[in-house]
Amino acid sequence: MTNRLKTLETKMRKDFDSLGIQWPIKEVYFRSFKYDGQLEVWVRDSDTMPFKLYKTYKVCAMAGSMGPKRVEGDFQVPEGFYYISEFNPRSEYHLSLKLNYPNESDRVLSDQVSPGGRIYIHGSCVTVGCIPLRDEQIEEVYLIAASARRYGQNYIPVHIFPVRFNNKKSLQYLYKSSKEDLELQRFEVGIKEAYDYFNENKKIPLIGINQKGDYMVLN
């Protein structure tokens, strides 16, 4: 694996040179879209620069439906604002990056006894509620995240949205899925603010959580 990753790093260095981004990566931001089945990787050299899109990966297996994860065993992929809490180079799913689910919002709104856990971005292309990629893709994602962590980015955000809110087909699906669920509609409107902020500014929104567990954009 070590030699393989070294070869991959050489290739990726050339990719980033073409973007005008220095390797090793200093800062990375991940966005995932459940219905669209995509994981975006955004990078930048410093916190004074806007993020640039490096690559969009296809999420290769799906579980659950629209809406956040609320209980252990519901097979839902979470929706909301997370960060990478653990790197596992010896994962049974090739490589894996653990997310900090349940976060502060989830602890308010999810099952108080058994909200679930063990949510990862990982390889092996299987899932019961995670974000799976093909092995060669997770190698790239893992290498980028590890580079950013090694060079000082302790907080690596992963924002998970139900859909691409600027895609008409995706919005129609979200509307059909939530039209009889007012609580879900309210939740999705709240996280859309963060989606819109990043799309407009190419900077990560500052997210707050109120006592009810609602997300708020504080920028």
Task: Describe what you observe in this structure.
With 219 residues, the protein is an alpha+beta fold. The chain has one domain: L,D-transpeptidase catalytic domain-like, CATH 2.40.440. It is 32% helix and 23% strand. The protein contains 5 helices and 10 strands, in the order αβββββαββαβααββ. The protein has helices spanning 2-19, 104-109, 135-150, 168-178, 182-201; strands spanning 27-33, 38-44, 52-58, 80-88, 96-99, 120-122, 131-132, 157-161, 207-209, 215-217. Strands 3-2-1-8-4-5-6-7 form an 8-stranded mixed β-sheet, with helices on both faces.
Short description:
The protein has 219 residues and is an alpha+beta fold. Helices cover 32% and strands 23% of the residues. It has one domain: L,D-transpeptidase catalytic domain-like, CATH 2.40.440.10.
